[in-house]
Amino acid sequence: MGRGKHSADQDYSYETKFNKEFDYEDDNDSRKKIVIVVIAIITVLVVAGIAIYKVFFEKTNEQVEEPKQVVQEEKMISNIEGYNVLGQIVIDDLDVKQYILDSTEDKALENGVIKLYGGTLNNYGNFCIAGHDYDNIFKRLAELSVGDTFTIIDRDLEETEYEIKQIYSVEPNDLTCLMQDENKVEITLITCENGSTTRLIVKAEEKNQDTSYTNSLSNSTTQNIVNEISEENV
Questions:
Q1: In angstroms, what CA-CA distances link 217 with 122, 174, 224?
Q2: pTM value?
């Protein structure tokens, strides 16, 4: 009797121990699975976070990055109302800034100032510029004084400063102001005054110019040329 009871108890103990070990292994498997799942979730979150950070960082950089500026080469306009533009005259003291047109037509005078006579801008010789006595053109030329300066800009945007040497008045048929002296870089400004009964002449020379050039044009040749210019264009 006693032995049988002992055997039953012993069998029960083995079964209980087996069940406990089985439950322990099952718990371990569950924990491993949980750990794996947690690691997987953390990995996904980290990867997603890195991806989101990159996207956000790149967009932020795009917003902060300054747009590239396209530098356009500055150029002078080539014509006005069909008239070729040779350059520009700027008289700061009179708030004058006008394009110089290559024409002696009266209609051209309505669109700015004109090359009345001469060679090329900012070169040796006497480049003569005529303009109406309008408010924004040459009306205030008489306010200038000897020693004042103005600027001539050519088509290459090269600027040359001129200093006024003479200011005087002439009769409408007096064209001696157009005479050429190839030893100088000279500009002559011409406009009407006193109801067109006289002409105001402003003669200026390039400041600090090189006077070594001596290929002068004879006054007799120049006089023959200027006599062909009508006084109506002055």
A1: 17, 20, 12
A2: 0.63
DSSP 181: -
Residues with Cβ within 8 Å of residue 188, at least 6 apart in sequence: 126, 127, 128, 129, 177, 178, 201, 202, 203, 204
Spatial neighbors of 25 by CB under 8 A, at least 6 apart, are: none
Name residues whose C-beta falls within 8 Å of residue 214's C-beta, 6 or more positions apart in sequence. Answer: 182, 183
DSSP 90-147: EEGGGTEEEEEES---HHHHTTSEEEEE-SSTTSSEEEEEE----TTTTTTGGG--TT
Using a pLDDT cut of 90, give the percent of the chain over it: 54
CA-CA distances (angstroms) from residue 101 to 30, 83, 146, 180? 96, 6, 26, 20
The phi, psi pair for 185, rounded to 5°, reads -100, 105
Rounded average pLDDT over 1-15: 51
Pinpoint the alpha helices (H) of the chain.
2-64, 106-109, 219-226
